[in-house]
Amino acid sequence: MSSLHERHLAVSPDWLALYYKHPLEITHGEGRHVWDADGRRYLDFFGGILTTMTAHALPEVTKAVSEQAGRIIHSSTLYLNRPMVELAERIATLSGIPDARVFFTTSGTEANDTALLLATAYRRSNQILAMRNSYHGRSFSAVSITGNNAWSPTSLSPLQTLYVHGGVRTRGPYAHLGDADFIAACVADLEDLLGHIREPAALIAEPIQGVGGFTSPPDGLYAAFRRVLDRHGVLWISDEVQTGWGRSGEHFWGWQAHGENGPPDILTFAKGIGNGMSIGGVVARADVMNCLDANSISTFGGSPVTMAAGLANLSYLLEHDLQGNARRVGGLLIERLRAVGAASACVREVRGRGLMIGIELVKPGTDEADPEAAAAVLEAAREGGLLIGKGGGHNTSVLRIAPPLSLTIPEAEEGAAILAEALRSVG
After folding, report:
1. What contacts 212, CB < 8 A, 6 or more positions away?
2. What is the model's pTM?
């Protein structure tokens, strides 16, 4: 055990998990690679949990941060803040929400917490609909709507949460149905649920479930839900903390795969927009955002430094068509990984879109999740020079792959080859 690991254990909570039997100290990065304290280089296929969205040490972002820090680091939302207004203008336009208002936070957890505050205040209801297998953050209100018991340590809550079918396509009581029948069954379940309860404030849903293992419903499910929700006046919150900014390749926002009946009432974002800087936020139409009748500010949300980073990062992403790159390179990577999966008895499914890919592992010949195999592949991939993540609602048995969106084809091929060898070593 390293001295730094010992020091970490002495001052950190037991539940603050570290990856790997011998935890990794990352000292610096460049592009799609990072280096550890021993000088070893790794291809990064996890990007600090989907946060290093464009590239490590992206010159445009580091320059913007440095220049802004040289002027002023902090002022708070009590003062006019040019970078914050400029980034809010761009996000409001990109969101697709009419007459949009933007409020910045420091994390996705805080963004979802704010969305819940807005929805419950607007609707005068503390009931929330959430998806099974979901994850929305680590605050008291966010864990209480999380449908994944590995990440929800308490049932105590300021909210009453009811869980809806549909977030997981290939498990559960409707897995055997075709896409159209799957959607119809989930809509019928929602209709039935709403017939038994007082009308809730909102449905919150990740278009692609992140911590849940990059699982998603068929396109159009949330559009079908929206027809039902609108009849009851229930708001739709799209949690885009992991799916936003073009990561799926096909769409800029995850909700757009379900956009037949319009955009969500509330959209939350975080992670990739700051490329490592702490930015989160909420977009909502004006009547919802303005419903609060008490004062509210954000001391650190909208910091001039983080907003400068977000502006530079968003500009780079759009100017270099990283959404298109995610579609092209991600499509190739998924094909390679599906070929790898077909040769491994422990791979149940390779799923995902763009550069948001999950590999679900099971015990060979069964449908039983195999978290030990997932942990072993994580270790073997590191030994091969590749960093990946893990998650999943069934005992953390899904390998999570989410490289920076500037990933090149040779890097995708290299990562797939390392993963193939890692799977062979445990299979």
Report:
1. 133, 134, 135, 148, 167, 168, 206, 391, 392, 393
2. 0.95
